[in-house]
Design a protein that fits this description.
The protein is of the alpha/beta class. It has one domain: Vaccinia Virus protein VP39 (Rossmann fold, 3-Layer(aba) Sandwich), CATH 3.40.50.150. 27% of the residues lie in helices and 29% in strands. β12 and β13 form a beta hairpin.
């Protein structure tokens, strides 16, 4: 990790689409697409979270990436589960999905399945709002969400597009996913996390070999009822999941939740 930080500190900023690697997995990064692209290229993005992936993902395992973005975590996961494992990536933003498709094409011996769709509680079509940056350094897409009013107060221009939404339970049946092989699920869906989890009852009610879930929570219920991270943590407690702050791996209290928080939900034994 120190070596990667050093390379990022002294290295220049490539342009266009540049290639980096997670072990044998090739990851082509569009440097002009997103503000985090440079960190993706040097693989310095949230490096302390990598220990979670390395602990729960092993050769032959399955990783589910909901809100895959450019495919950064899918690329790391593919390197960990290997050619005998599977990565299932869901990304509704067309520009981000194109990046995930490049990941698929660049690694033909790996089982990386990309879906240009969002996940929620039930099959439907919903309008998605995308924020368009106003400066080149901010890339071409700054963020996206299915939550109405998620970007209220953001003065930057926006676009709206209808996206297909499915439930993970239905997809798992269709794709014949062996839930006993799923090592980790990641959810980063712009405030839509509660709806995603509502469509994952096959995972939440699983009794044996239960699945850890790494989720980005948003807490601002005054803006929209879906943005209630405290209620989501309590709901996950009812499913016997313990909430840990993902960076420190310490138990988090609902009253300490920040507006945006990365939480690792660990199944409680018993």
């Amino acid at each position: 990790m120190a070596r990667r930080r050093s390379q990022a500190a002294v290295g220049g900023t490539p342009v266009g689409i540049a290639t980096t690697h997670f072990g044998p997995v090739r990851f082509d990064v569009d440097l002009g697409l997103h503000p985090m692209s440079r960190k993706f290229y040097y693989r310095t993005h949230d490096m302390d979270l990598e220990r979670i992936y390395r602990r729960h993902l092993h050769h032959g395992g399955i990783f589910v990436d909901v809100g895959a973005g450019l495919g950064y975590w899918s690329a790391l996961a593919a390197s960990l589960v290997g050619p005998n494992g599977q990565v299932h990536a869901f990304e509704p933003v067309p520009q981000f999905y194109a990046s995930v498709r490049r990941l698929v094409a660049a690694n033909p011996t790996y089982h990386i399945k990309a879906q240009n769709a969002a996940l929620g509680s039930a099959p439907t079509v919903l309008p998605m709002t995308m924020v368009l940056p106003t400066a080149p350094a901010e890339g071409r897409i700054a963020g996206a969400s299915l939550v109405p009013g998620f970007f209220a107060g953001d003065p930057r221009p926006k676009e709206t597009a209808d996206v297909h939404v499915g439930a993970f339970d239905d997809y798992a049946d269709w794709a014949r996913i062996d839930l006993d092989r799923v090592g980790l699920i990641r959810i980063d869906s712009g405030g839509f996390e509660a709806e995603v989890l509502n469509g994952m009852t096959s995972v939440l009610l699983k009794r044996q070999r239960r699945v850890p879930i790494l989720a980005t929570l948003h807490t601002d219920p005054a803006r929209h009822r879906l943005l209630d991270g405290r209620a989501l943590v309590k709901a996950m407690d009812n499913f016997a999941y313990l909430a840990l702050e993902a960076h420190s791996l310490k138990r988090i209290r609902t009253e300490d939740l920040r507006p945006r928080e990365t939480i690792l939900f660990i199944p409680i034994p018993g």
